[in-house]
């Protein structure tokens, strides 16, 4: 994939996250892998609705070095870790989506019973990574571990990370995770009633 094409895609995806409410409270971040060594990721501390493709940052996955004067998302280490450990994954989305965030705050693993959701999410359990402060080595390692065997993980008191073979697949994972977490919450309410 061309760098420019990736920048256009990642920029549009950032706006799409906002539109779909997947980053309702605070900003998330999106990246696309371009080749074995590089990715393009959304920048740090920008309003998504003001982003242009030129604001997207080209980063080396192994050295974390980036091109230009715009800083990459502060959660780039997590993205790089996923690309290093999951060779078939070419897109990572970190969201603060509502239902997944509620379940993440409770630090609960989510059992997936629906067959179609299992296929999309890549397993029968979506793990909640233990709590760790943002931008720390611990959060990178713990989250990457929780997503080793599936396409999504919850980040305790924080949000979710959703991955896919391409950007569209990662979005489908994020939407499906939201449905799965909504029904998980509903089933617990019924169990408690
Ligand atoms: Zn976050």
Please explain how this structure is put together.
This protein has 193 residues and is of the alpha+beta class. It has one domain (3-192): L-fuculose-1-phosphate Aldolase (3-Layer(aba) Sandwich), CATH 3.40.225.10. 40% of the residues lie in helices and 18% in strands. It has six helices and nine strands; from the N terminus they run αβββαβαβαββαββα. Strands 3-2-1-4-9-8-7 form a seven-stranded mixed β-sheet, with helices on both faces. Strands 5-6 form a two-stranded antiparallel ribbon. Helix 2 runs parallel beside helix 5 (137-146) and helix 3 crosses helix 6. The longest helix has 26 residues, at 167-192. It is globular and about 55 Å long. The mean pLDDT is 92. Bound molecules: zinc ion. Zinc ion is lined by residues 28, 75, 94, 96, 158-159.
Helicity level: 40-55%
Q: Give the CATH class.
A: Alpha Beta
Number of strands: 9
Q: Provide the low-confidence segments as ranges.
A: none
The CATH H-level homologous superfamily: Class II aldolase/adducin N-terminal domain
CATH architecture assignment name: 3-Layer(aba) Sandwich
Cα distance, first to last residue? Answer: 52 Å
| Main β sheet profile | 7 strands, mixed
What is the N-to-C succession of helices and strands?
Answer: HEEEHEHEHEEHEEH
Q: Strand order of the main beta sheet, please?
A: 3-2-1-4-9-8-7
Give Rg in angstroms: 16 Å
Proportion of strand residues: 15-25%
- Main structural class: alpha+beta
Mean pLDDT: 92
CATH topology grouping: L-fuculose-1-phosphate Aldolase
Report the principal-axis shape: globular
What compounds sit in this structure? zinc ion
Tell me the number of structural domains: 1
Count the DSSP helices: 6
